[in-house]
Amino acid sequence: MEKEKKRLRDKITRHMVLVFISILILLGVIARAFYLQVIAHDYYVEYANNKSHRVTEVSVARGDILDVNGNTLATSEQTYNLVYTDSKENQKTFNDTMIKVFKLLESQQSKNAAEPNKYNAKLDEDMPLKINPFVFEFNSVDEKGRKASEMRFKKDFGFNDRLAEENYNGLAYGKLKEEEQKEVDAMLETKTAEDTFNYLVDFYEVPAVYDLETQRKLVMIKNRIKIQAFLGNNVTVIASNLDRETQFLLQQKAVELPGISVEIRQKRIYPNNNTASSILGYMSKITDKKYEERGYNLSTDLIGGSGIESAFEKELRGTKGANVVEVNSSGVPLSTIATLEPVAGKTVKLTLDLEVQKKAEESLQKTMEFLREPKQVNELGSGNATRGATVAMNIKTGAVVSMASLPNFNPNDFATGNLSNEKYNEYYKSDYEAYGKANGWSQEKIDKIFPVNESGEREDFYDFLPKKMLNYATQSLQPTGSTFKVFTGYVGLHEGVITGSTTVNDLGVFEDDDDFSTEFKDEGSNGIVNLRKALQVSSNPFFMQTGQWLFKKYEDEAARNSLGIRSPLDVIAKYSWNLGLGADPNNPNGRPETGIEIPEVTGNVFNSTDLENSVYYSTLDTIMSALKNGVFNRINAKTKMITNSYTFQPIDLYYHTGNDGEATDSLELHNAKKAVKDYIRQIVLHGSEYNKPDEINKLLKEVIKNDPERYKNVTFKESTLDNYGDLDTISRSVIYDVARFDGYNAAHSIYNVYNASIGQGYTVATPLQLASSFATFWNDGTRLKAHLLDEIIDEDGNVVFKQEPEVISKFDMNKEYVDIIKEGTKDMIYKQESVAPYFKDLTYKGQQLMIGGKTGSATFREDQLKIDRNAFAWLMTYAPIEDPEIVVVTVIFDGHWGRVCSPVNAAVMDAYFKGKEAKEAQAAATATPVAK
């Protein structure tokens, strides 16, 4: 019993102790809460208002871009950005703070008058709405793009919502009906730059006491802050790439500027300025939100906008670090609590040789300047020789040694992501009227060269002016001219229609058995020529004759089947596709691309499929235009006189869409029009097999039936004994006549082969594409991927990727035939008086460097001289002849004769082999002697 009482007392005692302790803890918590919330309330509120933590980015150095010898093409350096941290506290003094910042930056910038280019203290400029005068400036290359950008800009600021609310009882734009939205869009389109500016000043509540320039700056920065807030950021860049003295001054003034601080960033530097800019590309602001998911800060980060910078963005960008910092209520950093170190981007090493690249650009520029001298202009008509490209490629590896495109740009202008107005106008905008007047043109000539389009804007209709942002080496297509004769000669040999001793009497004219005749006044006659001589003198009759023999051989269906072609027009194309000059349009696995890492366009060699499509669309356009107008005039091709004229009730075969791009034709009407067009295609492809006017009439009646609104008051006359009715006239004298005698004849004429055999007409290529094709030819038919990348190197100097030669395809070539071609190309270099002087003294290791080549002159258009244009001047050279290692292809727009490119090719080849010789000598000098 006593034990039970003792256990009970012990239990009660422990329970009471626990309760007592709990009460003490609770009292302590209550007391602490009372202290924090009542006694120390003011202290901690002030502390919280003045100090908090913020994670800030630590910028990372973008990886370097090097040439094949380790020379720097692009690198990064530390710079400073002025940033503003948005908060309720800072908003109270926003205008006053910004005015102080504006004045401080202007004061620093003005010091450049005494010490030019020392200070960089300008606000970042990213608002396309300018004042004095009020105007929109968008980075668009045409009027349509500018208008679209203007409408998007206005809508981004909600100007359309304001107009909707004012005109539709307070309804927002998104709540309106489709027709009402179109009406608002029409109103928005009429709003001028000044109207938009006034709206923005009101929208952002900018005080009217400030001058216009200050108002614009405040609007620009407030808009930037708004965009960052939308993206979840409260830090906005105000000015980038500040000079050291300006950033130090701002650091000192930070206490007086609530929300203002300076961050360390990395700036892209291109030490060689314009050199290789079309390859390297440039840096650009980020406009696509998808990059935010990849860790980019859309406010401060830049991204590769083109070229290598874009192609290897993933490798170059690196990984940013971070600091956890303590900041006060104005967002000014007070101390760093923790740091995550950044990881630098990888180094991208290219196959380019900087010295060869410099020589390529320098010689190309000097040659074009020479061609624009008065004497040359009078002799060659080369006054517009303002652009060109040259590509040097290693035949054994596919590596691009140099790739020059002129004119080009300075990527340093884009390094901050903000292009100045002056540079924007230089790179993207052309004042055609001013250009013409500056060159002393008459108004008549200005109107002819730069006609006014339907939008009331002048346009460069004849592609007269050079474009600095276009890579002419990879993104411009031209007829290949007589350089193509190398391929035609080989095809002729391989197909057995010619031998090395086959001759043609070149009288400066070519005639066939079908009454075709063309004269070559500029070239004159060359007498009796074989293939070797024909390549030396570039005999058009010889290669046209070769083309005719090839066509005749493959008129036989069995022969075509054995070669795997659908038309005798495709013989030369079949071989060219194997070399990489285009691809069979009927082969889904064809690879016309060279494989280069930067953007390229690809042309194609003349072939029957592309020809038929081109002729069909041209024929269709002629027919549709005539039917819409209700009249067709048959014109004699030789006399240019009207031989027959037909009138009839118009029929509209055009597809129609609304302002929104949606089709307004019913499905039945669309299909009826398509049926007529498909029938026209069959006539173009098969000719008289489809001479069935009654069938065409049925198709036309379906169009009329399904478009009742258009034809409700229209009567189509019936046929009579002595006259066709409207539909018969349309089907017989327009649709069939044009499709059969213009379309079918053009799509199947042997004349196309004559043009193709000398590199004219439909055969087009970029300089890179042509260089790659010749590299394949001189590499015994082994086609290698063209590449600019050599190695990718990590921050520790380890090679993490090495680009090896990559075979795309192989084509068995006959060495005997290639050797015959080589002899002709050697004679072309050393037996042409205007070419030989540039190449005869080139040496390698003390011996004469034997070089082969082929010139080319490709017509721009038949009336080119009337519009101050001229032929494309081409030159292909390769060396050494006995074992080809490098091929160089150059084109100069409006250069006329291919021989004018000789200084360029010679300079590039000389630089390449001198560099190679120097490397070999250095390697030999540093090699460890072998012990005896």
Automatic annotation (TrEMBL):
Question: Sorted alphabetically, which PANTHER family does this protein's record hold?
Answer: PEPTIDOGLYCAN D,D-TRANSPEPTIDASE, PEPTIDOGLYCAN D,D-TRANSPEPTIDASE MRDA
Any idea what this protein is called? Penicillin-binding protein dimerization domain
For the biological process aspect of GO, one term held by this record is: cell wall organization
Transmembrane portions of the chain: 12-35
Instruction: Name any one GO molecular function.
Output: peptidoglycan L,D-transpeptidase activity
Name the principal localization, coarsely classed. Answer: membrane
Q: Where is the Penicillin-binding protein transpeptidase domain?
A: 388-583, 756-899
Q: Which domain of life is it from?
A: Bacteria
Q: Where in the cell is it found?
A: Cell membrane; Membrane
Family under the similarity heading: Belongs to the transpeptidase family.
Could you give one GO CC term from the UniProt record? plasma membrane
Ranges for domain Penicillin-binding protein dimerisation: 59-336
The protein's matches in Gene3D superfamilies, at most eight in alphabetical order, are given as:
DD-peptidase/beta-lactamase superfamily (3.40.710.10), Penicillin-binding protein 2a (Domain 2) (3.90.1310.10)
Keyword Cell wall biogenesis/degradation attached: yes
Which Pfam families has this protein been placed in?
Answer: PBP_dimer, Transpeptidase
Membrane topology type, per the record? Single-pass membrane protein
Keywords, comma-separated and alphabetical? Cell membrane, Cell shape, Cell wall biogenesis/degradation, Membrane, Peptidoglycan synthesis, Transmembrane, Transmembrane helix
What InterPro entries does the annotation carry?
A: Beta-lactam/transpept, Beta-lactam/transpept-like, PBP_dimer, PBP_dimer_sf, PCN-bd_Tpept
- Could you tell me which species this protein originates from? Clostridium cellulovorans (strain ATCC 35296 / DSM 3052 / OCM 3 / 743B)
